Automatic annotation (TrEMBL):
Keywords: ATP-binding, Nucleotide-binding, Transport. GO terms for molecular function: ATP binding. It comes from Fictibacillus iocasae. This is ABC transporter ATP-binding protein. The keyword GTP-binding does not apply. Belongs to the ABC transporter superfamily. PROSITE patterns: ABC_TRANSPORTER_1, ABC_TRANSPORTER_2. InterPro entries: AAA+_ATPase, ABC_transporter-like_ATP-bd, ABC_transporter-like_CS, P-loop_NTPase. SMART domains: AAA (SM00382). Residues 2-230 form the ABC transporter domain. Pfam families: ABC_tran.
């Protein structure tokens, strides 16, 4: 089990994270927040690239900073941008990284073959990576993070640049991997984690707002999400009164999904809140600013 205990991180006088507490067991954890909320800072601390200003991160009872090399041996990490050599084949690249990690050559060969099969790249194992799609490169990235069969796999914004089909494949792969390890996935895209995360972590105002299952998080908005139709000309006034979550225009009418704490009007249909609704509600100011 991995525990983040009262962790604060300051950069000079700037407070990036304030008294964070989290617990991770095997499964997929979606770290979901808009850009700038502190996801990367948290991930850098979980991977020992940054140290907390105060507090500690404990793996199976020991501080990860004290575990040092021992911790890095059980850690797999896919950073936002990972360096690969486009003139290398996946096999050559992974064997090279395995050598750097001190994995014995014969063991490495077997492991690399297994991994390329796992990420469905065995057919292109010996092809140069320069013609690979974003999704294929990302799968090479996962394979490199899995070289040491890590107990903790951390992926920072891993779906950027993937097409919808690649995203589905990627999600299925992660679900598989999370059966016997902790998988932590940071993203600002709700659909990346909605279908696979056992728990969602949301950071707001430098603190943890939620660490919970999706259904429990969505309960927070129970009875407040509705859909209705308004005339196109009335949409602007409606938007001023209620927080619009999504809109669709069809033959002069606007179909609006929105939030209201007021008693429902007869023409409103109550709907079950989803994670996107909670995300938009939670980060209204940030999301608006980022447009
Ligand atoms: N080395 C640093 N020095 C000063 N401020 C920093 C430093 N690193 C991060 N920050 C600030 O801390 C805050 C959190 O940054 P962080 O990169 O963790 O956010 P994020 O949620 O991961 O966003 P992104 O998705 O863009 O990486 C930001 O306001 C950022 O400007």
């Amino acid at each position: 089990m991995l525990i983040v205990q009262n962790v604060t991180k300051n950069f000079g006088t700037f407070n990036a994270l304030n008294n964070i507490n989290l617990e991770f067991r095997n499964g997929v954890y979606g770290l979901l927040a808009p850009n700038g909320a502190g996801k990367t800072t948290l991930i850098k601390m979980l991977t020992t690239l940054l140290f907390p200003t105060s507090g500690s991160i404990i793996y199976n009872g020991k501080d990860i900073i004290k575990l040092d090399e021992e911790y890095r041996e059980i850690l797999g990490f896919l950073p936002q941008e990972f360096g690969y050599y486009k003139n290398y084949s996946p096999t050559a690249y992974l064997l090279y990284l395995a050598a750097l990690k001190g994995i014995e050559r014969q063991t490495a060969k077997t492991r690399v073959q297994e991994l390329l099969k796992l990420v469905a790249l065995e057919n292109v194992a010996d092809k140069k990576m320069k013609k690979f799609s974003g999704g294929m490169i990302q799968r090479v990235g996962i394979a490199q993070a899995m070289l040491n069969d890590p107990k903790i796999l951390i992926l920072d914004e891993p779906t950027a640049g993937l097409d919808p089909k690649e995203r589905v494949r990627f999600r299925n792969l992660l679900t598989d991997l999370a059966r016997e390890r902790i998988v932590i996935l940071s993203t600002h895209i709700v659909s990346d984690v909605e279908s696979i995360a056992n728990e969602i972590i949301m950071i707001k105002d430098q603190q943890i707002l939620y660490q919970d299952t999706i259904s429990r998080i969505c309960e927070k908005l129970a009875g407040q999400v509705y859909e209705t139709e308004v005339k196109y000309e009335e949409a602007a006034a409606f938007r001023k009164k209620y927080f619009s979550l999504s809109e669709k225009q069809e033959s002069g009418m606007m179909y609006i999904r929105f939030l209201s704490e007021e008693p429902a009007q007869p023409e409103w249909r109550a709907v079950r809140p989803n994670l996107e609704d909670v995300f938009l509600h939670t980060y209204q100011d940030e999301v608006m600013l980022q447009g």
